[in-house]
Amino acid sequence: MISEDIETYLKEHEQKDLLRFITCGSVDDGKSTLIGRLLHDSKMIYEDQLAAITQASKTSGTTGDAVDLALLVDGLQSEREQGITIDVAYRFFSTDRRKFIIADTPGHEQYTRNMATGASTASLAVILIDARHGVQTQTRRHSFIADLLGIQHLVVAINKMDLVDYSQARFDEIVAEYQALADKLGARDIRFVPMSALKGDNVVNPSETMSWYEGPALLELLESVEISHDHNLRDLRLPVQYVNRPNLDFRGYCGTLAAGILHPGQAVRALPSGKTSTIARLVTFDGDLEAAYPGQAITVTLADEIDISRGDWLVGADEPVPLASSFEADIVWMHETPLEPGKLYDLKLATRDLAGKVTAIDYQVDVNTLEQRHADHLDLNAIARCHVELTAPVPVDDYRTSPGTGSFIFIDRLTNLTVGAGMIHRPLDSELPYEYREHDSKARVVWNRTSVTQAMREQINGHAGKCVWFTGYSGSGKSSLANALEVELNRRGYHTMLLDGDNIRHGLCKDLGMSEADRTENIRRVGEVARLFAEAGVIVITAFISPFRADRDAARELFDEGDFIEVHVDTPLDVCEQRDPKGLYQKAREGKLTDFTGINSPYEVPKAAEITVNTAELGQQEIIGRLLKEL
């Protein structure tokens, strides 16, 4: 088709989707050889290239008399002399189904920064493992960096199977070894392929020597992996790169759409100004578009004249994008001169340039074990979670949600060198530390955000906050069970708080009587207090008759699903009256107490309590054992 109808060929070529992927792993795992084999076996090497590497193989090759395919990508003289990859080498090839851009990244620890650069634009990582050596330190390092940069698809290529006699047992052993590492990663799609890049087994064509492997060859995996869902089509993000003003009649805002779908008539908001307008046109060199998608370079015009300049963002009119002057980020340091907290750097975040500094290093990650340890500076190739402070508030995105607007680089102010890269985790403060929420308060108040979140408190405590709500007749055994449960949880190291019905009425609710309205208010207050304890990461235990189903349901609504455990102490009324530990039933029978549950006030049995127990049939230890099991 190329020789007969070049235009048709090019048109077909344009319609194919593009997969960017990297190859990474330890030194001598065969990354460059793998890429050379992919290009060779898919017929993507020109004759003059093949002739050149055939000649070079005689002086720089490492494969004896055979052509050293690694020389296709190891182009630097020092790379060929040492037989290693130093710089990131990019190669393009295509098949009938897809186009590819490969980044061959270095295996040496010294060049980890180059690997991070190659991974920053990739959708998939091929992690090579030498079948003789198994999972190495660089395997862990590169897997962690790929995960840190949000790569969702990992292909673990177990190479050099020809040197272990194509052993299935060795393959299974390495898969199990890597799975232990994979459990600590966030990647949702991990595949394993046994191969020999040198011999061509399972690279482009299925291996005839590994019939025990029933999966696809590497190229088939690359052609079929689904990457269309990796793009964020929900949140609109257009960082403005340039304001196009060719004449008095046209003002357009140019940029590459980082996330979301944009179309004419859509309501947008400019950040940080907060001004709103609607999209009038989507302009490109080839004409106006009806819709734009992530990755497209476009020029937009607005229906209103509002002040927008380079570095501003266009987002959805109703999207809650926080403005922050400081944020938490994962940083990969890429320079021999260490990062020092407090030193001022130039930062480039999306299309905005501004100054900033690292104010604190939370922890540095030991990539060998993925453990976190203390650090007061960052050396070359170090990876750490840090606090970054800017000289002005900017819109902030989580990197995993929107990589294009959630990443940034550090630039040395004297040398103008890029010295580090960062991925934003979350804002540490916002321009407005409060938000307006719907509520029924009689006072005109706002909701103040807290910097320390429930998740952070729970991480310190070592467990989630929950509410265990005991309900039942007076004398059913609620308070005794609640107390025994707290003792047992406390003994096991859990953070707990017990809210007992009688004790609450001595303080928080001492102004309330026993009428139906006062009882409802009593339970409302207790539910709000229980929620605050749960947000502190504490397991709060309550023991209240709480006779009305609507009141208990209202308390449940304050908690996330699964965080409210209702325990119905279903001890029969006659047993409770027999016990009468406080003499309340007798007083109610004599008419001295009104509105007493079970005598002259109803008790509404829970319809779907998580746990139901009966203290007349089971002993306390047996019940506590069951509660612990359920919890």
Structure report:
The chain has four domains: 6-230, P-loop containing nucleotide triphosphate hydrolases (Rossmann fold), CATH 3.40.50.300; 237-316, Elongation Factor Tu (Ef-tu), domain 3 (Beta Barrel); 323-427, Beta Barrel (Elongation Factor Tu (Ef-tu), domain 3); 454-630, P-loop containing nucleotide triphosphate hydrolases (Rossmann fold), CATH 3.40.50. Helices cover 26% and strands 27% of the residues. The strands form five sheets. Strands 7-13-10-11-12-9-8 form a seven-stranded antiparallel beta sheet, with no helix packed on it. Helix 6 links the parallel strand 4 and strand 5. Helix 12 packs parallel to helix 13.
Task: Let me know the largest β-sheet.
Answer: 7 strands, antiparallel
Distance between the termini: 67 Å
> Average pLDDT across residues?
85
Q: Output the strand order for the largest sheet.
A: 7-13-10-11-12-9-8
Radius of gyration: 32 Å
- How many helical stretches? 16
Uncertain parts: 74-86
**What global shape is seen?**
globular
- Judging by the overall fold, what is the CATH architecture of the largest domain? 3-Layer(aba) Sandwich
Strand content: 25-35%
The total of beta strands comes to 27
Structural class: alpha/beta
CATH C-level of the largest domain: Alpha Beta
What is the fourth-level CATH superfamily of the largest domain? Answer: P-loop containing nucleotide triphosphate hydrolases
Overall domain count: 4
The fold-level CATH name of the largest domain is: Rossmann fold
Residues in helices, as a percent range: 25-40%
